[in-house]
Structures
1.
Amino acid sequence: DHIGGDYEMKTRTGAPVLIHEADAPRLEVMDAFLQEFSQGKAKTFKADRLLHDGDMIQVGETIQLEVIHTPGHTPGGICLKLVGEDLLFSGDTLFQGSIGRTDFEGGSFPTLMKSIREKLMVLPDETAVYPGHGPGTTIGYERKYNPFILGYMTEK
């Protein structure tokens, strides 16, 4: 649901497609991947840039995003942190009161929880989190109320 329209968007807008290197092969087998979800066909293509943990993405002249590799939902799952601000785009890694699915090919619950524990729960409580689906939240709220994080953080 996050890559099916990438080729069309790139064609219409000229925007480059960026993806973590571990998920890049999915772009080259889009038809098979999307048919698994009954979402029809999509054009296969290669990304304009492969991302890695710690990379910076420049948006315009003033916005810089830091890539935080958070595997678990997919091998190349990422979050994007707005540099200089307590703001995170979490994609399908972390949701308000939940976490990303791990039952798809390449998904791993222990890996996702490790990503959340080591990469996201170290951020300040006031960090605003905007997920790929659903309402926004904060790191502090999730640390305090998210049942997946509460259960996993106390077990480990």
Note: The mean pLDDT is 89.
2.
Amino acid sequence: MSPPGPSETVMGRPTVVIEPRNGLLRLDLGQLYHYRELLYFLIWRDVKIRYKQTAIGVAWAVIQPLATMALFTLVFGRFAGVPSDGLPYPVFAYAALLPWHYFSQAVTESGRSLVGDANLIRKVYFPRLVIPLAAVIRPLVDFSCSFLVLLVLMAWFGLRPSWPVLMLPALVALAVLAALAVGVWLSALNVRYRDVGHTIPFLTQLWLFASPVAYPVSVVPDSWRLIYSLNPMVGVIEGFRWALLGKASADPAVLLASLPLLAALLITGLIYFRRTEHTFADIV
């Protein structure tokens, strides 16, 4: 929605009229900068709520990927004998779980964010996109804590990153855009169809096994690899292993195949969000 428009007089009192701008691509993304303090407040609020009255605080951000890594190492690495591209399986799995847990948290929290902040939406005007955006950024705090554990694991197994580590910020940005693209769609749909909120855990569970977290891309048949790589998390996870663990090769087709689809998903999601946000306060 556009910023408050000119005042009108109703019954002798000035009234601010807020009207959406016309046009398919007028997303008004510049408003996000003007509401940056609200964005910061929402992020900090979510961080405090997440760890309020917890005994070990931010350590929960580390325990979850560590526990999952231990389980994957036992089941897939030892029992099933899943290959790990010549890397120690624990660090192979953890390097994938690091971006995956960020993506899973960001999608889950952003998908439910508008319904969760219903009272705020009803009371005051602001760009509604701020809410799912804050939910996507907040898990980066957990990501940063978990990343320190990965550095310890790499040192333990004698792995040192080389020049590809310079690509890590771009890979993190790609994970953020992927989470935002999915989260914008789910958050807007969840306002109208509350079933969406119930399907998010199921969606992320399926997405986990459709991504190369517990196994390498090399086990996917060549005839399916291009289609498989349309999953944006395939490029992110393979990129993390290449940038951090010194994986011998990174297929550019795997890393870049999902970019057109991701761009289309993000743009259409923003357009749908923009065209429906004026109804959020009435429906939510």
Note: DSSP finds 15 helices and two strands in the chain.
3.
Amino acid sequence: MALAFAVAALLVGCPSARAGGGVGLTRSAPRSTNPLHGRAMWIWELGSTDGGDLRRIIAGARYYRITTLIIKSSDGTSAWSQFTPELVAALHAAHLRVCAWQYIYGNHPGVEANLGADAVKDGADCLVLDAETEYQGRYVAAQAFVRDLRKQISARYPVALAGFPYVDYHPAFPYSVFLGPGGAQYDVPQMYWRAIGVSPTAVFAHTYAFNLPYGRPIYPLGQVYGNPPMRQVEQFRRLALQYGAGGVSWWDWQEAHAGEWSAVSAAPSSLPHAATTTAPAMATVGLHARGDLVVWIQEHLLTAGEPGAVDGRFGPSTQAAVEAFQAAHGLVVDGIVGAGTWAALLRYRPAAITWVRHGRRTVASSEGSPVPVVRLTRGGPLRLQAPASAELPARGDEIPRGLGAGRG
């Protein structure tokens, strides 16, 4: 109730708020081609963030030069009452961008898509999808969610995926769906270096190597929960600049202390020196690799005219297809997808595939067995069962489970 009064009080003093109602209140929102550009802070539970006092939140955002707030709008099939058109309007009136984020599970993708679209209608500047353990292996559900969401919002509306940072740890996760055509335009990996147990330098190197092949701009999500040392927060920011990130966001407001806030807002020129680095080459993928990154390779090989399986397993048939592709494009023929092969392969769009529960499956009895060949046709998208790699277990959760899920 206190929050409702705070929002109402702010709106009373806002000329644009008095001029109309509903989504129209957001007209004073700051404009940017990318709402993730700059410095953003995540808000999980608004009532636990400065006591839910919107005036304090706005004052804090201004003081620490926060340009975007990423506020939870739903959890699975449940909408959260904290995300409203009035809240968005009040924050827009304070010249803050507002992104909605939803934790999605995949049990009811259609309902989750509806809730995402509802947040967009509430005036959100972008929608962030927090998809983690629950979506591993769920290619059909992921595609249904993306399809139903895009039916309700424009194809150009900014959507971001906030998922696991280490793609190779999660071979069953459908990155190729969430970050593929029609999916999220932005990649916001949860790069919680302290929770993972590595340095900021290590988390950047690993995350970028395996996320870059999906071709989406990366906006690192760092941690200010768990009391990370200020120097590490500052180093994370420095590395983001050196890797060319257009913006950084932080999890999360309600758990940040004074030291973290100071490190997050320090002027770039004052950040401690970090070793000069550049974004690493994309991960090298070859024989016996398994996972969604292999699915991504196989989808591009099909479009490039090299028929083969789409099973997420880099077996002899995929190696042969890569060698044929390399020969046709004047590359070193070694059957390994490295920097040069990635650059050539990603000039092609991935094959259009409709993942279905019952349909043709391009899977072999073992890695060395003959694999059914898939060829592109003019009859529309291929209809295939989820790749065999969708059944692979994760190497482990490099980030703690449950961050962002439930509660409220």
Note: The CA atoms of residues 255 and 294 lie 38 Å apart.
4.
Amino acid sequence: MDRPADSRLAPLAGLAADELLVSEIFASLQGESTYAGARCAMVRLTGCNLRCRWCDTAYAFAGGEVMRVAAVVERVAALAVPLVEVTGGEPLAQPAALALLRALCDAGHTVLLETSGSLPIGAVDPRVIKIVDFKAPSSGETEANDWGNVAALAAHDQVKLVLADRRDFDWAARLIAEERLAERCVVLLSPVWGELEPRTLAEWLLAERLPARLGVQLHKLLWGPSRRGV
């Protein structure tokens, strides 16, 4: 493929149509979404078109191993875990991610896609459960949200809104109401680690009676905020 126009995606330049730049593949417990606590194979792809202020996976902006789609599916199969999440970075920044998602579904996996919502999700295999992480104001990347993705949400998908403060919460409340998100799919509100106490977010959620769930990063509670491969 040609060199990406966005310099943030420069590490992806030169990949063939069936190649992926993979940051890591490992088995763990799913840390977020309604699947939290379930055994899950994690496929983290390199590269992201965003630079969220509180990003906790900046190591995936560059580096990694070039792998063909079939090799990724084979490595996931060796982990013997039915549930698989493809994440990043921003996985949809790599064109071959669509083929990977389809191949994982064909292999019989339940497949989750963690995506920022800044790139179109309409071409994702409909069997995939999309977890769309629209960016709140504190991220510094709200302008990148592709609101056309709301119409592409299926009932089995999930919207995750990561919030750092009350301004973010009020933004989320307006978004949920204006886009009728809770009528489309499950909505999860998650606090930025170290910036917003989960209890505070829970109290706001209860007081405002939002049709959303509280989500916490289970993997960080178990293993801490900086450990990779969990």
Note: The helical segments are 69-79, 97-106, 166-178, 181-184, 198-208, 218-223.
